[in-house]
Amino acid sequence: MLEQKRVKELNMKCKMIRYLTIDAIGHLGVGHIGGCLSIVEVLVVLYYNHMNIDVNNPKMEGRDRFILSKGHAGPTMYSILADKGYFDKKLLYTLNKPNTNFPSHCDMKRTPGIDMTTGSLGQGFSCAVGVAIGSKIKKDNATIYTLIGDGESQEGQIWEAAMYAAHKKLDNLIGFTDYNKMQIDGTTDEINSLEPIVDKWKAFGWNVMNVEDGHNVQEIDNAILSAKKCKGCPTMIILNTIKGKGAYFAEQAGAGNHNMQIRPEQIQKALKELK
Ligand SMILES: Cc1ncc(C[n+]2csc(CCOP(=O)(O)OP(=O)(O)O)c2C)c(N)n1
Ligand SMILES: [Mg+2]
Predict the structure, then answer these.
(1) Which of 76, 121, 187, 191 to mutate to test the pocket of ligand 1 (most atoms within 8 A of CB)?
(2) Full set of structural domains in the chain with CATH
(3) 142 pLDDT band (50/70/90 cuts)?
């Protein structure tokens, strides 16, 4: 269990990361605000409580990796990496502008701290499986974390990689599903339901955990601690989240919040609510 003080600190971080992310996307006027805001808590718990990384040595041998397979949520990653000191926070305002090092989708050749180029749904997850195999061969004791979307989980490539990860007994691989129940055109249940999602991952040979509230830092932390103890197979942690969490206009837009235009007054109000 985390100490109450730590829970408070992590929740404050989440607020700040939301603030930076909404501000950066708002500055641009358009972006994947919904999918960026549903993953704030898991990224905060990982980057501030678990990952073995070194901001002064971003390519450190044997570091833990995080691969954001739903690469369209790059802006949340940039807020975290800026806060950790990988680059100046002011650069967040260059998001997706010409010649930026902060494209809306993650690019490992541009952004310090990004370990895999992602955005073509399904591919990042396969890359994570490859990196986990590499880490086993090197025996460097790294943990490889990856996060997929629920819409992304409709990609066949996800299940090919899932099968292989279990076959290779990758207990150094911890996956998260951002189960916000929404994709580009509507709800996952309408378009191509993932249910029964827990049973599917179990059937593929994974250790599976279902986090009822994917915005609760304590529940996420417990799940990660338990996943780290699991031996002989990879773990998938299902996070029940809300797309657009924490920005009133995005939550209200429902499925319309995927890649939405945002007005300055909406940003101002949302940022004020976070203060
Ligand atoms: C292979 C591929 N097909 C289509 C797209 C376009 N696309 C980008 S995001 C997205 C929806 C993804 O939904 P989900 O995984 O639920 O992520 P969320 O929007 O909830 O963050 C789609 C279809 C893509 N990036 N890659
Ligand atoms: Mg989704």
Answers:
(1) 121
(2) 4-274 (3.40.50.970)
(3) very high
